[in-house]
Amino acid sequence: MDAQMRKMVRSPHYQRAKDILLILVGCVLFAFGDAVFLNKWDIVSGGVSSLGIIVDYFVEPLTGFGIRDIVVAVAQVVLWILGLVFMGKKFALKTLVAMIAYPAFYALFYRLDLGAVLGLGLLYPSVGGASLSSYELLSTDVGNLMICAAIGGALDGVAVGMAFLGHASTGGFAIVSSILAKFTAMKEDVSSFLIDSVLILISALARLNQPSIGIYVLGGIISALVCSMAIQAVYINADRFVIADVVSDQYEEIAKFVYNELDHSVTLFDAVGGYTGENRKMMRIVINKSEQLDLENKIAEIDPSAFVSFTKAKSINGEGFVPLPKIKKEKKHKTGDKEHD
């Protein structure tokens, strides 16, 4: 990658476009996992789609048609407004794309019955004209339900992880978790777990007379666990940045490679060998994970006896990387000769 390409990749406009793309793709995957897999078996694993399943369980027998996509859309809007009120405009803008995109794609996939269009009908229950609430599971159905639970949970987890990488979220009850984290000592992961658990519990209580309700609850738990693992794989373990500490007598030549080839900077420290007492130079280099192998190979070529330590960095901001977020100061309103914050 030449210097001009690196400059473009690190520009604020590119970063914003990348973030929006990650959020949009995440919303598509989230809607696909919910509408095509979880909803077909009424698997409640958490999130606004699970709220739609619970409400639809009571409403569909009365109306004759499903309204779960309508419930999802209304819930997303209401929760987004709560985020705007309690978290501010900046937070609301971050979740605006997801607030619009997820319900739109969900409704599209749900109404088109995209799973059947894609030939996934063999994974679905053969209820015919009957309601799923009165459907007795067969042994073969249990396997299909678990497959849908696992795939749906995995897609949801990847979607949430992508939205997090885009510095936003998929909206929904994640907004409630953010609000609770702001005003209470409860962390987001704890509140998210509690919200999902409450939804699963409500679903179980509402459908106690449903045949094989235990299997449905187990499917929801498995889906939630797989979702959590997928988030871990995509976001938590996304070690995109690496800090390299290098001790070498050939530090000038290594630094020249970092400047010219990797287009990064180098920080030099005066160091003293604890055993030898010799004065040495230690280099600190911050690079992208994809550049680590190039740096290792070059150091091995220049100085095979160099000491190198790589540390994973959670986030890097500043010159040459993602720009530091700008925090707007609150305007002061003047009243007479006094200023009020």
Q: How would you characterize this protein structure?
A:
The chain is α+β, with helices and mostly antiparallel strands and 341 residues long. It folds into two domains: 19-116 and 139-236, no CATH class; 241-313, 2-Layer Sandwich (Alpha-Beta Plaits). Helix content is 59%, strand content 11%. The chain has twelve helices and six strands. The protein has helices at residues 3-9, 12-38, 48-63, 68-87, 89-112, 114-117, 139-165, 173-183, 188-206, 213-236, 251-262, 292-302; strands spanning 241-247, 266-272, 279-288, 307-313, 333-335, 338-340. The strands form two sheets. A four-stranded antiparallel beta sheet has the order 2-3-1-4, covered by helices on one side. Strand 2 (266-272) and strand 3 form a beta hairpin. Helix 3 packs across helix 4 (68-87), helix 4 (68-87) packs antiparallel against helix 5 and helix 4 (68-87) runs parallel beside helix 8 (173-183). The longest helix is centred in the first third of the chain and has 27 residues, at 12-38. The radius of gyration is 26 Å and the shape is elongated. The model is unreliable at 333-341 (pLDDT under 50).
Topology diagram in text:
Elements: H1 3-9, H2 12-38, H3 48-63, H4 68-87, H5 89-112, H6 114-117, H7 139-165, H8 173-183, H9 188-206, H10 213-236, E1 241-247, H11 251-262, E2 266-272, E3 279-288, H12 292-302, E4 307-313, E5 333-335, E6 338-340
Antiparallel strand pairs: 1-3, 1-4, 2-3, 5-6
Helix pairs in contact: 2-5, 2-7, 3-4, 4-5, 4-8, 7-10, 8-9, 9-10, 11-12
